[in-house]
Specification:
heterodimer, A: 211 residues, alpha+beta, 5 helices, B: 290 residues, mainly alpha, 11 helices
Chain lengths: 211, 290
């Protein structure tokens, strides 16, 4: 909750204009505010772009394969967003995450061998409490984890399991529930109930290295 | 859509903070408890879109992997640059933007730099038709490319730079549909190179494994085409063609024998299976470049 308040205050500097309230309730926009709104969008997009560049820089010595920035908002319930990453044989991959555009409560990042709808999927990697900052993980590590888990549950021979590898993985961003309803006093002393949505984003850059 | 939600979010945040400020002034002024609640109903447009998102291997990586598997260069294979004038519809232009991306990577990986230079120019020309001209806006891009001909590492770096710019531009401008279509074109072209080579050299088991592995990517592309925001009959036709190939693959004995584990193992197709796959892929590729 404190994070939410802090985020609101930070965003104040960018978004605040003297007559926002009247405009919103009245459903009309004035030219000056459109400019401020555009600035807000530009600031948000610039932040993401900065994250994309930073994440890509950390791929070295792996070669660049792709970048995916995932935008999300916080809801009153926990929800998840998924990104599928495809991989090719005899190649290691590095996944570099940049969480510097996480503007409210921290999220969790989990990586699986199957999509959210898949039965019996194996958790390959998990990082909780992901906020502003960077971290990375390699496919090699996840392949090892995958084979170790498979050997516990599969009836396949160890030789076959040793040949198994992940051809795609599913990155899940688990976004926690936050309170969005705020009740605040207006100029005339009434109380307004306002829904606050905090937008955030996390960036994933993927690089490859032939083995 | 994206601009809308940001605008709305900005407005909401602005409203909230301003209102908080008002409250403080009232309290400082000694005002007692505020009057009964009046609810302001705000229409909320969510930022979330549930579009299927995936990170596929780049065209340069696919070209590299086929090269590593022993695929020989064949000058007759890449799509002719003259064909560019045949692509007048945006869908076909987007698709062939991908095709030419693969052709460029194929030429570079095989050190055919003069041809590569022509493909870079074709990409630049096509980019203007599909809204990606900004990617090639850097005036010295082609010049830098030409200055580094013969130095594969530098040329690959330039291709990566183009790829990064393309990815960024697509992300910033919400052109996800375009990225799916152009990547589909790149994938089909890469598969085409592999298919022709696999038919010519059936003893190269690695190529069969690579082609079967590419079906994993095909499944994601199919999903991407079917998740496009804008309804598009061309995309639907293309998706159906890819689905047919995937169904054929799934029904091969070599695949069925592995069951669910096929998702995690190299699949060695029989010569007959490789030929069937290759024929289907060549037919598909022919249809998209004509």
């Amino acid at each position: 909750m404190n994070n939410l308040k802090l985020s609101i205050l930070i965003l104040l500097a960018v978004f605040m204009t003297s007559n926002f309230q009247a405009q919103l309730i009245g459903g009309k926009k004035k030219a000056g505010n459109e400019e401020a709104e555009l600035e807000a969008k530009v600031a948000f997009d610039n932040g993401i772009q900065k994250g994309r560049i930073a994440a890509r820089k950390r791929l070295t010595p792996y070669k660049y394969d792709g970048t995916k920035s995932t935008k999300y908002n916080y809801k009153t319930y926990t929800h998840a967003k998924e990104v599928e990453v495809l991989t090719i044989e005899k190649t290691d991959y590095k996944f570099c995450f940049d969480g510097n555009m996480i503007k409210s409560d921290n999220i969790s990042v989990e990586i699986y061998d199957k999509p959210m709808s898949g039965k019996g999927r194996i958790l390959l990697y998990k990082k909780d409490d992901v906020g502003p900052g960077e971290f990375e993980v390699s496919l090699d590590e996840m392949n090892e984890k995958f084979r170790a888990e498979k050997s516990k549950t599969s009836t396949l021979s160890p030789e076959i399991i040793a040949q198994m590898r992940l051809k795609k993985v599913y990155v899940n961003y688990i976004i926690p529930a936050v309170e969005r309803e705020l009740t605040v006093a207006t100029e005339d002393g009434n109380m307004d109930q306002t829904t606050v949505i905090q937008f955030s984003a996390i960036v994933l850059a993927v690089g490859y290295k032939f083995m | 859509m994206k601009l809308n939600y940001l605008i709305l979010a900005s407005a909401i945040v602005g409203l909230t903070v301003q209102s908080c400020g008002d409250k403080e002034e009232i309290e400082n002024g000694g005002t007692t408890t505020p009057a009964p609640t009046e609810t302001t109903v705000i229409e909320v447009e969510e930022a979330d879109d549930n579009t299927f998102t995936f990170v596929p291997p780049s065209p340069i990586q696919i070209a590299s992997i086929f090269k590593k598997a022993g695929l020989e260069y064949d000058a007759t294979l890449p799509n002719k640059v003259e064909n560019i004038s045949n692509y007048t519809e945006k869908f076909k232009q987007s698709l062939n933007f991908g095709v030419y991306s693969s052709d460029l990577a194929y030429c570079v990986k095989n050190e055919k730099y003069d041809e590569a230079s022509k493909y870079l120019k074709s990409l630049k020309d096509l980019s203007a038709n599909i809204g990606l001209e900004t990617v090639f806006a850097s005036e010295d891009l082609v010049e830098r490319f030409n200055d580094n001909l013969g130095n594969q590492d530098s040329i690959v770096e330039i291709l990566i730079f183009v790829q990064e710019n393309t990815d960024d531009y697509i992300a910033q401008n919400g052109k996800v549909d375009l990225s799916v279509v152009y990547y589909c074109g790149a994938w089909i072209e890469g598969m085409y190179f592999g298919s022709v080579s696999a038919k010519a050299t059936p003893d190269k088991a690695d190529l069969g494994v690579l082609i079967s592995e590419q079906m994993t990517i095909g499944r994601s592309i199919l999903k991407g085409l079917r998740s496009m925001e804008e309804e598009n009959l061309d995309a639907e036709d293309l998706a159906s063609s890819i689905e047919e190939i995937l169904n054929m693959f799934d029904n091969f004995e070599s695949v069925k024998a592995l069951g669910e584990d096929a998702a995690y193992l190299d699949i060695y197709l029989s010569e007959d299976e490789v030929n069937q796959m290759a024929d289907a892929l060549i037919e598909l590729r022919t249809s998209i470049v004509e």
